[in-house]
User: What shape does this take?
Amino acid sequence: MTLLKAGPYSVRVNHRSLIVGVVLLVLLVAALLVTLSAGTNAFPMDRVVAAVFGSGTPAENLIIGELRLPRAVVAALVGIAFGVSGGIFQSITRNPLGSPDVVGFGIGASTGALVVLLILKGSLAATSIGAVVGGAVTAAIVFALSSRGGVAPLRLVLVGIGLGAALNSLNSLLIVRAQVYDAQSASAWLVGNLVGRDWDEARLVGGILVAGFVLCLVLHRPLSLSEFSDERSASFGLSTDRTRLLAVGTGVLLASGAVAVAGPIQFIALTAPQVTKRLTGAPGPNLVVSGLTGALLLVLADLAAREAFQPRQLPVGVLTGLVGGAYLAWLLGREWRKGRA
Amino acid sequence: MRPSHLRRLGVFAGAVVVLGVVVVLSLMVGRQSISPVDVIHALMPSATGDNADIVRGLRLERTIIGLVAGAAFGGAGALMQALTRNPLADPGLLGVNAGAAAAVVTGFAVFGVTNGFAQTWLGLAGAAIASVAVYLLGSGSRSAATPARLALAGAALTAVLFSYITALSMRDQDSYNEMRFWVVGSVVNRGMDRLLLALPLILAGIVIALLVTRALNAIAFGDDTSKALGLGLGKARVATAIAITLLCGAATSVAGPFVFVGLAVPHVARILVGADQRRVVPLSMLLAAAFMVLCDTLGRIVSSGAEIEAGAVTAILGAPLFIALVRRRTLTATS
Assistant: This one.
């Protein structure tokens, strides 16, 4: 542990977390550069750097600067949002499976988006608003229904699962009902996709991330403490309910912002905090590292989705869904071995 | 006969009556309403005309499929809740039905399997794999699967399976169009031939289910007590798991994945006849059959334009019950 001080503010930093964070940051930059240079039109690194600063040839500026760069930036930002949001939720629920995509907020965001897309026939921008509203309303309902003289984290998760299952049927219903063409584009959106994302989307997630970052600064300490039992945290003088409300609000804001831009990409929020925990070996939510892990995962997944199946591009959500499945299988295998030992 | 026996007999008789009423309603109601008398006339083998076409040609099939699939899901839900000693267990919620659906969809999207026989068995295999997976995922390192862990594991598994199904459906428009109807449960246009293929399996499941109810009562005591009483429960557990797989897999291959039918109905059954599985399991089957047919009928009435699929109706009716159950339980942080 080291104490970083800046004026009246100080942050305690775990050495290993710091090293892991720096390594992840380097890897992320490297992955971004590879994403910009690789592809059907491959460019050497010096040209990539030139194009990023707008001093390449017109072709380079177009392909790298205007097509690949915004998409890569959106991937990184959405990854951060999912990773941090997952870290927050897993910390509140004290459960590795308690991520926003599992407990129904992602599904609620999708419902909002589908209503706008299929019933109101709104634009893609309006769809984003629908997603944020859907996620927020779902979270509010879940929170209201799970508070009964205090919000037990497990009740929160279970209510979320129940509501999520109902919303899932509603989503299927909306899709079954729609014209096949509309339905297919809605389904494509439902998988989670980064194709054609532009600076507008980057600004949207970026703004939400800044707001989320401020909230996380407030949250970081109470959240680490609230991983103890409710009684313990109360004895530290912590109002667990208020912390949870604020935390859920932040998590939902980040998750629905990410969903609004990229669709409900599965499993980044589930996986990133777990990978983080194993890398750092530190207790607590470790939101910064979790966000970086999420960004790295999503940038790599999008690169693979873009290039590995040429001439077609897969939606990135297909890849993360399958990788998430593999990760779940691994988790399962580990529990199984433990059970036998 | 003691009064309590009489009461239970009354409950079963009542359930049968409700079932009959619901079936007649389901045959009557739709875009064209038909009076009960005409329904009975139309059911006569010699009947012809519009009413006979509508009742026998359209409504009878979906009613029968609803009855069979409902009984299967209800029985499976009761068995699951007893086996895992978990009031939140439901084949839809725990991902078993999603497993069956994923297997069927894989069959026709990847290997072009449209043969009903093969699809039924694919459904079974998918249900079996998913139930084993969710149980292992839900069991802790040393402890048995707790209600909350199991529900979480099921939600995670369902998420994977549905994203997998969506991924497959992106391939082309034809398979997409057929597949979008597999992600929501429905009893319409499923085809009698498919039901006939699944029926023996479902019947086998029902027979096994009724045979294991005694042992399920012992499981309710907990492992230690049953061991102390000298009851070997290993075989009963395996038999119950087989029955669940048969019921869910076969029913899903006919009607698609349903949520909450298997969750809600056993709770109502327990309120009516107490905790004895010898009564809960058969009553759940009866009531779930009625519930399913009722949901399908409701879906026809509620919206005047297109119908709402039964699967969506069961989910929308079942979710409030699930949430109410969760709210009533005192949940501990470790469970």
